[in-house]
Write a structure and sequence with these properties.
Largest sheet: none
Helix content: over 70%
């Protein structure tokens, strides 16, 4: 979304919340447009407008939606129904029951990427298969669900970040990975 499109969205907000924007100076308006344009630079203007309008239609207070609320609404509009931690565990439990001890990779590959990320490796399915059914459905299930919930929150937080922040995180991550490799191999 560019600055012109951002200004149009800010005009919608001003029309919906005239009392809030009545005392905003021109300089403050410019700063707001620049901030919104920067934080929504990677977003389609029509999508941002749809999110803003959805929030305007559902808000009952006299304050305009925050940038965070708009980003959250965009995520809701663009993401299909997310899997719950219970649904994710059901997939894992079924994979554990179907795992052939010689080929756990096959069941692992069938799982969604976010579940694979929580499990870490196909070997985890084998490890889960070695515990009693009762232990699997209580302790292991609880631990997995907690880890899945945390992973989903991390993914959600990352998705809400502006592109400029994602680039910084990526640069830091790459530098950290490179230092770890160098220290491991003695370079």
């Amino acid at each position: 979304m560019n600055k012109q499109e951002t200004a149009q969205i800010m005009a919608i907000l001003k029309a919906a919340y005239p009392a809030y924007y009545a005392k905003i100076s021109k300089e403050e308006a410019i700063v707001a447009v620049n901030l919104w344009a920067d934080l929504f630079a990677a977003e389609d203007a029509l999508l941002v407008a749809a999110a803003v309008k959805a929030l305007i239609a559902s808000k009952v207070d006299s304050y305009p939606p925050s940038i965070g609320a708009v980003k959250e609404k965009i995520l809701q509009l663009t993401c299909p129904q997310e899997m719950t931690e219970i649904e994710a565990w059901a997939l894992v439990a079924n994979a554990v029951r179907r795992t052939d001890w010689n080929h756990p990779e096959e069941q692992f590959k069938k799982l969604p990427k976010e579940i694979q990320a929580v499990l870490g490796s196909p070997g985890t399915l084998c490890e889960y298969g070695m515990v009693t059914e009762d232990h699997l459905n209580t302790v292991i299930a609880s631990n997995f669900q907690r880890s899945y919930r945390a992973k989903k929150q991390n993914m959600r937080d990352y998705a809400l970040m502006p592109e400029s922040a994602k680039k910084i995180v990526e640069q830091i991550s790459n530098a950290t990975d490179k230092r770890a490799l160098n220290s491991h191999y003695g370079d």
